[in-house]
Amino acid sequence: MTRSFPLTNYDLAATLDSGQVFRWIPRGAAWEGVLGDHWFRLWQTAGQLHAEGATGSSPWERLLHFLGTDEDLTAIRSSFPDDPPMRDAVAACPGLRLLRQDPWECLASFILSSTKQIVQIRQCVSLLCERFGQPVAVPPGTAPVYSFPPACRLAETEERQLRECKLGFRARYLGATARRVVQGGPMLEEIAGLPTEAARRELMELPGVGRKIADCVLLFAYGRQDAFPVDVWVQRALRQLYFPNRRPSFRTLERFAATHFGPFAGYAQQYLFHYVRTRLGRTAFPKASSRRRSPRPPSPPHEPH
Prior knowledge:
This protein is α+β, with helices and mostly antiparallel strands.
């Protein structure tokens, strides 16, 4: 079944390929992925989002909520600082949106993202779902896909089985975090009601979760605009674009990010990240490769590298 929805100021490809999620794969002019236990194929034409579901009960409203189609992007972008880097970032990808993700899938995926490139993260997540998820209904002739495994399934899985999904050292962190979540510490649904700093502390109590991963989850799953993930790409972008010919410390960059980018700082961060990764790329940042590689100094004691 296919439905079409009006779409304004939206770039589907930039949004799904900007390092926020790892289960949406380009197929020609369309994108295929799984939301919960539903398969979708999405494509965009002028002023329209087209969505194909595998069943008549596909959750269309949930899909639109996930995609953030209801946000006033013009108002959000008008809150950004009026400086050359932000103007260039917006001009490069004016329809980029933040997605609204499931907290557990987001948390687990970013634990797997440490020191990996996006294509590798996608492979790890795909193998994890294939091995431990449930089959999802797809149209005839479409390759099988699987739901993201819940924490309770991974909590009972041996580390060696997780390592078979090419997770490496991340397998230990993922299994331990799944067990902590299942045992009630923290309750991911309760984090939504906490102030950002308290929510960040709760997340950072989990194995393998440092400041950067916690901020990714706060931004991409909980919509906290005062979360500003600083990975290698963003750190180098801030230094080169805002502090040329200077050597600011990591703490200085954190303080700058907390005050410079306004009430939608999280959105501004994603624009900067996608801009430097896709437009400036390796020429400007030759050593940055992964989506969410942690900057070296300083690093929480249980942050994986």
